[in-house]
User: Fold these one by one.
Assistant:
Number 1:
Amino acid sequence: MSIFNFFSRPRSAPIARERLQLLLAHERALNGRSDLAAVLQEEILAVIARHIAIDRDKVNVKLDRGGSVSTLEIDIEMPVSLSPVKN
Amino acid sequence: MAKVLVVTSGKGGVGKTTSTAAIGAALAQAGQNVVVVDFDVGLRNLDLIMGAERRVVYDLVNVVQGDAKLAQALIRDKRVDTLSLLPASQTRDKDALTPEGVERVVGDLRDKFDWVVCDSPAGIERGATLAMRHADVAIVVTNPEVSSVRDSDRIIGMLDSKTARAEAGERIDKHLLLTRYDTGRATRGEMLKVDDVLEILAIPLLGIIPDSEDVLRASNVGCPVTLHNPSSAPARAYSEAARRLLGEAIDVSIPVERKGLMSRLFGRKVA
């Protein structure tokens, strides 16, 4: 295994280069509004909270920045009984 | 026409102060009237790298606040008589610098010198923004390493938006200085290559400074590397960078160490 490793020496620089290109493409686009994910999360939650009582501790937000597609995943655990918000 | 040059990077420890001293000294040796200004208020080090730490009486904050005249605070270099230093304060914090005061002092320095070289503190806060504020030319010092490249990208964005020139709709000349470069490791795919960094940051290359023991040796004795060991690889790289700033068209190469018989035999130089 060690001889195999010696011949296929891992080249880390191409990985560094790809990670940087991806990251900077996003950071440049978000220039000055790096809190976009937080803003989206707040506004989406506010809309949902108007209709369903949600527990803030049971909200899970994931952001995955990819090369061509980025995803914002908001996981909201619904209460057992879907109690509508009383107005 | 005087030029204000800022040496900046965002990230700390990449070689801003070393580069300020080396390029400032090289410009002065080329006959230019140069002042190097330390903007790192509270953590000054340019005085130490220049070997003038025992001669500091007044500093940039004293001049900005009007407690000392500019001529009193300037320290003339003992090796090159067209080179001066304006040190930062060690005891104050960076809020002691006011935008109006800095504008006045930089304006006064423009009248006295051909080149005003501003050594920026790390970070993107007040000290760094004031150091770049009045620049005509910027050197972005970058190591071939992911965090340094990311921070340089951020700083380039600030140079294009937060400087007086940018706000007036004018262009600021930006140059990349790649420091601590190791050709061997880059060739083996262990380190970002020059072309990788250039492609990502997309600003013209001013020079490549090889990773070298000569840099530490020069800072140990308080002498810019371009004066301490002019024939060393980093000194030649810095001197060529300075000539490019003066408008000479020289191809960028990576200077290599010239090893003599003794260093070949014993593996290190007798310094």
Note: Chain A has a mean pLDDT of 76.
Number 2:
Amino acid sequence: MAKHETPLLDQLETGPWPSFVTDIKREAESRAKNENNVDFQIPADVCEDLLGVLELSFKHGRTHWKHGGIVGVFGYGGGVIGRYCDQPEAFPSVAHFHTVRVAQPAGKYYTADYLKKICDLWERRGSGITNMHGSTGDIIFIGTTTPQLEEIFYELTHNLNQDLGGSGSNLRTPADCIGASRCEYACYDTQALCHDLTVEYQDELHRPAFPYKFKFKFDGCPNCCVASIARSDLSFIGTWKDDIRIDQEAVKAYIGGELKPNGGAHAGRDWGAFDIQKEVVGLCPTGCMRYEDGKLEVNTPECTRCMHCINVMPRALRIGNDRGCSIFAGAKAPILDGAQMGTLIVPFMKVEAPYEEIKEKVIEPIWDWWMEEGKNRERLGELMKRQGLQKLLEMTGLDPDPRMVQEPRSNPYIFWKEDEVEGGWERDVNEYRKHHQR
Amino acid sequence: MAFVSSGYNPEKPMENRITDIGPRKFDEFYPPVIKNNKGKWLYHEILEPGVLVHVSESGDEVYTVRAGGCRLMSVSHIREVCEIADKHCDGYLRFTTRNNIEFMVDSKDKVKPLVDDLMSRKQDGGCYKFPVGGTGAGISNIVHTQGWIHCHTPATDASGTVKATMDVLFDDFRSMRLPAHLRVSMACCLNMCGAVHCSDIAILGYHRKPPMLDHEYLDKMCEIPLAIAACPTAAIKPAKVKLDNGKEVKSVAVKNERCMFCGNCYTMCPAMPLADDVGDGIVLMAGGKVSNRISAPKFSKVVVAFIPNEMPRWPKMTDTITRMVEAYAKDANKYERLGEWAERIGWERFFEKCELEFTHHLIDDFRDPAYFTWRQTSQFKF
């Protein structure tokens, strides 16, 4: 017999997609039986109260969680988010129900052995409910009490060689795409760069010293599978400068139908025979391709590396060899002045360990500027809007480049600086009057 | 429930303290076929929905089976994932950005037993535990936020709306009949910790009532200057308020017509709650993308201003989403993303084909960028 009736949630236990309600009930039952004699450090019936409070929200159409006060582990200003229930008498086991963010490994690869240890820890010292993963990328532990926080941190660091992630006004846990580990499109090693910067900037990640949150994300190619260009203050997108490598025999195999276009992604419908003119050459956004006399040609200087032709014919076309990344700054979700897409600030940079150019020419000068000039809760993109892209270039020493704009300004209201104008701005009006009467 | 110490000594918090070690290094967790072939992959192919093969220049192959997961996941469920990884994949697995679980094997003969095993596992109510799919020109898993399970400012639930939506879109998770891939995302308030603003279809929770003011407690529970500073539209100002008992207290006043319902004030000040059973509901957005393929990344546009919260399955919301997906599937060209399709046919046609009502709420009136979204050409369609 369940502790709380959940008639509304029960209706989410049918249909094909996995049911989170059934899953939480499963955990509730597992804790109630406790076949492994786990020494639970928070109440055993925590999952039942979690379902109870969620059912109440489904009934009321309102949340029953309060934002917590300041909770955390000693010496860190992030990684834990306080959470309290606003019906603690009815649901005492989730009265205090804090979130813990655990930094995920780059690429989100795991061994089962590691995850089992994570499960053991979180079953004993928390609710046993997680997010795999949170939006930013961390493993999220949902629900524990304040006295458990230091214990969890101690066990994570001592037994699992594992640290917390970021929260609050600091560097948030960086995240990357699968990259070169299992993708032929990767123009740099996203996992290596993501991990290196995460480790290098641990202080910025754990101790809030920024005006607001700051996110790094790493996409190995312009397909942008981790959406870095839409949601990270600094987005690193893999690209290349030389020719797309073409295997003409494989091109013919696509035309002949021996190879399936787009890696078989469209196999669920009969789209007719593959038409290279219509599907590849005709859809190229720059018109830089042609297919004539059995040969596919790409006019490399005109190519903007959109990935379409490569996506359609992955066995015939491959990214170039002179690889690196483009860097975009200032993306964020809509609060406040509307959503912002990342703006190109570095058209091309090599990505080579120990990544000194990325750190010293891009990241650190930008942080210095933002920490000096950014207002409380102002994201980098908003500072860029307020002070201008020119200011970012000035503070980083990056050279202006027509690639950084969609078009030049259509107003001539240029804020010339005095040192840009020959002779400066100090002039003698009396000298002027010798030639121009009042 | 006796307290069991981890070894941490609260009297000496710095004793044996380990900090700033970061995450585990990724290559500890690479399966051998990944470790051996990193950077050497030649091409990939989707063999069937949810099953990919990547082929290396070494001749090695890795077969990936992608299974959908709830991002909300119990340790019992994760242990079952581990059991599957131990049984089929030498104990290795990974997760995708979109909350899918990927099981990898190094030869083709291992694929079918793995897929069969995954598809055979069902929950008590008949739901699949590990549905295989989410590849190619179909619908992958929904990325989403916390909702009522664990957040203080949501305007709807996340896991519930996602379950209801994935149930109706399930066939497209399991197949690849669409013109291109279609990404659905969900964020339970406009702060969008899920960053849904560049998705083909975005489900967004939205409040429509300004905060209530708990004057008697406000100054006791909150730092008034922080509550004022939290407001992105400067709608909050300090105020002296006379309570019913005649006592004058320090509080705040809210200029309601300036409120954009973000709940940032409530985050700073619990005496300013704004959740409401009829005020809160769903906004649907459409046409965004993050890929640079063919056209530039784009933001999603608001196409439905409000749908009420209808627990537990949000039928009006799922019907509207289904209508958009079907109109897109029927009308778009091969490779065309939903937003590219809408731009090609024109948004006026999009509303017609998706049978959506165009209301004044959908015309942008928020600050400067609004002007650039109004039509300034004589070219439009009747």
Note: Chain A touches chain B through 151 residues (CB under 8 Å).
